[in-house]
Specification:
Shape: globular
Low-confidence stretches: 285-289
Helix content: 40-55%
Number of strands: 10
Bound molecules: adenosine-5'-diphosphate, magnesium ion
CATH topology: Rossmann fold
Order of helices and strands: EHEHHHEEHHEHEHHEEEHHEHHH
CATH class: Alpha Beta
CATH architecture: 3-Layer(aba) Sandwich
Largest sheet: 8 strands, mixed
Strand order of the largest sheet: 3-4-2-5-1-6-7-10
Oligomer: single chain
CATH superfamily: P-loop containing nucleotide triphosphate hydrolases
Length: 363
Amino acid sequence: MRKQIALFNHKGGVGKTTTTFNLGWMLANKGKKVIIVDCDPQCNLTGMVLGFKDAEGFASMYASDSVTNIRDGLAPAFESRPALIQPVHCTPINGQPNMHLLPGHMGVAEYEVTLGIAQELSNSLVTLQNLPGALHYLFSKTAEKYNADFILVDMSPSLGPINQNLLMTSDYFIVPMFPDYFSAMATESLASILPKWAAWAKQGKKLSLLQEAIYPFPDKQPKFLGTIIQNYRVREGVPSAAFQKWIDEIKRGVEKRLIPVLRENDMLLPDELYKKVSEIAQRQAMLFSDSAISCPLFKVSDFNSLIALSQKHKAPVFDLSDAQLEQVGVVLEITKKSMQKFRALYSDGADRIITLTENAESY
Ligand SMILES: Nc1ncnc2c1ncn2[C@@H]1O[C@H](COP(=O)(O)OP(=O)(O)O)[C@@H](O)[C@H]1O
Ligand SMILES: [Mg+2]
């Protein structure tokens, strides 16, 4: 079964885009067919993957006659064209035949207001009934075309109608975090917004007008896969004290505030399943003392020099060749060791995601 996973946190700079790319690549390394979707009007993922330095790259891609990006894909629904939504002609990813990019478009921001009105689910809905199901329909048709197992949705840092739609029409979601005050605060606002979104989706799923639409509103109940804590500094192999404080704070927030809300709104997988993957993690010597649900999918320290090289070569931080690392001798060996550590982390994270999503229905 195809799985759509949203990477969601309304706070920016927490690693949504970086995780989408690296995790997608790792899932693809494991033989899964993956589509990464850039839903952020800032198009960071698209810029990174395609190596666009300025607007020119985007302009030539958008000038194509075929449907090459999310805005063109959605246009039939949002611009009331008579034609049906067609699958997007995705961009292949150099070096990773199992992964494709569904490129972003700044113009998607223009659809936000209309979608917001459609999602008010008021009486004026007849003219807007096709919009709430359009994003999901577009991704499904595109995933079908590429025979994808996973659709990873990179989202913008906002609590707007597009993100509300993307999250509530996904099968699963991951919340990337950065260990600081703002991510700790973000747990609070997620705990207060998610019940509202869940109530809205529940109402949407019951509305015959949305079910009878050309692009029906999908019957989804998104489940939490976990958090990913990114980009902290390490000292002697463990997070430095300042970061550890925020990591603990985030875990507390997730456990005390977020998990109860997710449980009330049926957004959690069965407890045994979280326990199962945390046992896998423990076997792989990543010991977590915390409870199974709040333990992050993985924690990843600062990539240091690897992040710039990853962006320069449009390759994941864990799969750079010796030539791409641009180093020799002892320095090269040290960097390769650190790269192997990240490879093991992402590999473990991908295994846990595969286990969670493949067993979700059998529990
Ligand atoms: N583990 C990491 N180590 C170093 N830099 C990182 C790491 N994760 C993300 N970054 C950098 O942090 C910035 C924000 O990450 P990004 O993935 O763009 O976040 P978001 O999509 O949530 O805004 C980017 O410049 C990215 O290159
Ligand atoms: Mg981003």
